[in-house]
């Protein structure tokens, strides 16, 4: 079958296959709107900023990037509707949380262009760069650089774009190769790469390493104690904590930090890089003989049966593994077995952290049942489906969600800046960042049909939860919840955080159930 298309009175015959080919959208078929400078005033755009951990340390400012983008947009009278920021993430791949959200929002056409300070803020991988350029082009979303002149309407402009993307990737690969070469040479010359371990101090002016005798004595005693065969990593950690001297990061000693500490070749005079060792320029604290004795004891411990853990003797599956948390420190509880009975245990002290409820524990079956009871008691209002539709149409709710997301992005930038300035230690910054990102992830405007589907599932969950197998209960609980919080002092479940898509349903059920909403879509249970 063919169609006839008239062109200046001369019939031109196209087959259907030819017509499809003529109208197929190609990467090179960029229309007049493909030049960012041609976007009209008021065009909704997004701003993307990024800084790696190393760049943070060296003062590469996220605020400077954002301010330059704001000025760039203001000059063209574009409207910034979204800010995306990935502090502490490298551009060598696309494994960046806000970057992924930005691409998803681009697919939904929430904005018409993405602007950034330089191409290497967006990506330093040519494959990823070209793939996202192609994808964004198919979404009718453009990208623009504040400091580089992109013009995708011409073949020359596209060539420049590819050249800059290639250079960004070359820079990353070349930098990585040069850094590795430099570190190998430093190690070969007996110079330590990075900070020196506990027991030593480095003079930055002379670049020489000196022993701190008080700490060195603890190092020797810790190695001698472990070499006796009568101690474990945990008892050595307890011994180190009794001295009152903390780790280099200012934390208490934990089993995990001691494990690394007792396997550090630096203490007997070597420097390491990857799998190679070289004689170091520094003075040894222990002998090679003592280091080898510790190594032999560790090897014997490795084959010793760990009956005190007895994971293989657990009589039932741990339904809340990885989502049950301490209400005080909000860290996940670990699963442990005692004589076949499972417990959720607060283990901050073992990790070198602080928590008022450290070492506290709750029976696994008791905790699991508390959450099952909470689900069994869910009650929704009679007209809950209409309430869902009404809530999703409430623009005040939408505005509050969008404003809070912008506030969180600003808080993330400030936290990254505070960490770079030394106001936060690494643990505090990591905890703050994860909490903000978790809240931001929960701030979604749910799809109405999906929300009603979730409501139908919750409305009937009490009818079958008791009859479900442990595997089915595990799946149900992990679908519903990001976290549940247990208070060891009150001996009860005090809160929970549902997955984002279930938040509207739990909010509607709150007046009829045993919980009320707290900040960040965390719900507090009431007695």
Shape: flat
Mean pLDDT reading: 78
Helix content: 40-55%
* Strand percentage: 15-25%
Number of strands: 18
In angstroms, what separates the terminal alpha carbons? 74 Å
Descriptive report:
The longest helix has 34 residues, at 155-188. The protein has 527 residues and is of the alpha/beta class. It has helices at 16-23, 53-57, 62-76, 97-107, 119-122, 126-138, 155-188, 213-227, 233-242, 255-261, 288-303, 364-376, 384-392, 395-420, 426-442, 448-459, 461-464, 470-480, 503-509; strands at 2-7, 10-15, 44-51, 79-87, 113-116, 142-145, 200-203, 208-211, 270-273, 276-279, 324-326, 334-338, 341-345, 361-363, 481-487, 492-498, 515-517, 523-525. 45% of the residues lie in helices and 17% in strands. The protein contains 19 helices and 18 strands. The strands form six sheets. Strands 11-15-16-18-17 form a five-stranded mixed sheet. A four-stranded parallel sheet has the order 4-3-5-6, sandwiched between helices. The chain has a three-stranded antiparallel sheet with strand order 12-13-14.
In short:
With 527 residues, the protein is α/β, with parallel strands linked by helices. The chain has helices at residues 16-23, 53-57, 62-76, 97-107, 119-122, 126-138, 155-188, 213-227, 233-242, 255-261, 288-303, 364-376, 384-392, 395-420, 426-442, 448-459, 461-464, 470-480, 503-509, and strands spanning 2-7, 10-15, 44-51, 79-87, 113-116, 142-145, 200-203, 208-211, 270-273, 276-279, 324-326, 334-338, 341-345, 361-363, 481-487, 492-498, 515-517, 523-525.
């Amino acid at each position: 079958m063919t169609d006839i298309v008239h062109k200046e009175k001369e019939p031109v015959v196209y087959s259907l296959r030819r017509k499809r080919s003529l109208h197929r959208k190609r990467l090179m078929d960029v229309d007049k709107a493909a030049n960012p400078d041609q976007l009209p005033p008021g065009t909704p755009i997004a701003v993307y900023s990024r800084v790696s951990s190393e760049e943070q340390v060296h003062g590469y400012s996220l605020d400077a990037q954002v301010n330059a983008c704001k000025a760039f947009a203001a000059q063209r009278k574009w409207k910034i509707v979204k800010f995306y920021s990935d502090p502490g993430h490298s551009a060598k791949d696309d494994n960046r949380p806000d970057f992924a959200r930005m691409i998803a929002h681009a697919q939904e056409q929430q904005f018409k262009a993405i602007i950034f300070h330089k191409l290497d803020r967006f990506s330093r991988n040519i494959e990823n760069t070209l793939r996202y350029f192609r994808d964004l082009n198919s979404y009718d979303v453009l990208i623009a650089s504040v400091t580089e002149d992109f013009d995708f309407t011409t073949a020359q402009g596209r060539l420049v774009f590819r050249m800059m993307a290639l250079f960004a990737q070359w820079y990353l690969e070349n930098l990585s190769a040069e850094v590795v070469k430099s570190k190998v040479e430093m190690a070969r010359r007996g110079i330590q790469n990075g900070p020196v371990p506990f027991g030593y101090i480095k003079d930055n002016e002379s670049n020489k390493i000196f022993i701190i005798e008080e700490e060195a004595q603890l190092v020797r005693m810790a190695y001698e104690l472990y070499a006796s065969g009568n101690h474990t990593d945990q008892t050595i950690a307890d011994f180190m904590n009794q001295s009152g001297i903390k780790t280099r990061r200012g934390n208490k000693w934990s089993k995990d930090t001691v494990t690394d500490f007792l396997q550090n070749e630096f203490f007997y005079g070597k420097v390491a890089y990857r799998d190679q060792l070289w004689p170091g320029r520094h003075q040894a604290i222990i002998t090679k003989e003592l280091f080898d004795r510790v190594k032999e004891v560790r090897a014997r411990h490795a084959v010793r049966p760990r009956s005190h853990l007895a994971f293989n003797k657990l009589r039932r599956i741990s339904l809340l593994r990885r989502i049950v948390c301490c209400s005080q420190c909000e860290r996940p509880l670990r699963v442990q077995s005692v004589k076949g009975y499972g417990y959720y245990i607060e283990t901050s002290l073992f990790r070198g952290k602080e928590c008022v409820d450290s070492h506290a524990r709750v029976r696994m079956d008791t905790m699991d049942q508390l959450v099952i009871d909470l689900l069994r008691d869910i009650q929704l209002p009679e007209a809950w489906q209409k309430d869902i539709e009404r809530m999703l149409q409430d623009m005040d709710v939408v505005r509050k969600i969008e404003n809070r997301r912008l506030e969180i992005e600003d808080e993330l930038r400030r936290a990254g800046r505070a960490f770079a300035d030394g106001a936060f230690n690494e643990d505090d910054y990591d905890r703050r960042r994860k909490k903000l990102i978790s809240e931001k992830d929960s701030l979604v405007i749910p799809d109405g049909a999906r929300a009603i589907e979730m409501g139908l599932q919750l409305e009937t969950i009490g009818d079958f939860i008791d009859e479900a197998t442990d595997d089915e209960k595990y799946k149900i609980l992990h679908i519903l919840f990001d976290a549940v919080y247990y208070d060891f002092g009150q001996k009860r479940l005090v809160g929970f955080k549902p997955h984002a898509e279930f938040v509207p349903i739990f909010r509607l059920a709150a007046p009829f159930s045993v919980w009320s909403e707290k900040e960040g879509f965390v719900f507090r249970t009431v007695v």
